[in-house]
Every structure is written in structure tokens, then in C-alpha cells.
Design goal:
- This protein has a single domain, classed as Pnp Oxidase, Chain A.
- It contains five helices and five strands, in the order ββαββαβααα.
- The longest helix has 11 residues.
Amino acid sequence: MRILSDQKVAYLDLAGSTNETSAHIVENGRVTLMFCAFEGAPSVLKLYGTGTVVLPDTKQWNELYPLFTPLPGARQIIVVDVHMVQNSCGFAVPFMTFTCEREKLKDVAIQMGEEALKKYNYEKSLESIDGLPTAFALNKSNMN
């Protein structure tokens, strides 16, 4: 997560299972980011806003990607224009202890290579689980 301005945040999204956030941004623009405190004082923080999907090989990608630690399998950047911030008690959030990052997704991305990942994203990240188009689908249409 990177803070871009007083009202904008962005995160680097990796290739993986589904592409729901992209599809919902395309559908109506709305995004909610939720953060939970699993250690220390209980808290839930929600950022409500409208999102933009930034795809690789675009001017905006070239401007934003250097702000992040490069990761194998980087699929897109989600930028959120935050309209409202809400904090709640978090009393129901369980305690959880962080052990370590899982390396499997990175390992698979490295093994696949950049071109195979690009092809994968344009084949497997085109729609949500309920059939809504993603930014990849719209970009693929514009490429033809």
C-alpha cells in the first residue's frame, strides 16, 4: 500500500485466483479497503472510495510501479480515491500471529516468466466469478 496524496492510496495486485476488485471497479467504481488489527488493541479501519485499475505497459503504470517493491506476478495497480474513512471497535477480530510470507505465488510467477504471466492475465483475469468484465477484458477489446 502506498499513499499517493491526502486522498489517494494504491496497492500492487498480484496475479492469482480471481480479479473481483477490477471487475467491480469497472462495474461501478466503488471500492472498500479494510484493515484489521490482529495484534494489540482491537480496531477495524475502512477506506471507502472509487477506484481505478492501472494495467502494465501504460503511462500510469510506468509512473506508479516504481513506488512499489517489484514483485514477480505484479498484475495491476489498484488506485483508490478515498472519500470516507471509518474506524470501528474491532472487538470481534481474532488475535492472530504473523509467522511469515508465503513464497509460492512469487515462485510460480518467476517460474512462468513475464511473457507467460502476461498471457495468463489476458486469458484468466478477464472476468469476475459472476461474469463481470475486468480492466483486462476492456483493454483486450481496445487492443483488437
